[in-house]
Amino acid sequence: MSHTILLVQPGVRPETRTYCDYESVNECMEGVCKIYEEHLKRRNPNTPTITYDISQLFDFIDTLMDISCMVYQKSTNTYAPYNKDWIKEKIYVLLRQAAFSPNA
Fold this sequence. Notes:
alpha+beta
């Protein structure tokens, strides 16, 4: 488990910048999914169940002005930066594992 900081800037204005921190990369990727789900709930307040596919999630990520992660590297006692493409790859792996998990 590597401490991970998610940096998000949804809009053009710097004031829209925010961050969240997580105990692991997987928790962070789940956090990105939750951000999208909250976005969908705000846009569809009267819809009781929200569903989406991975391409819609990736399109949402692409619309963000900026999103990146800083992942703690124990060996160097530093944080390494990762970009949108890395985040999308990690989300893909996470959701694929969840889809093929016996508990899914």
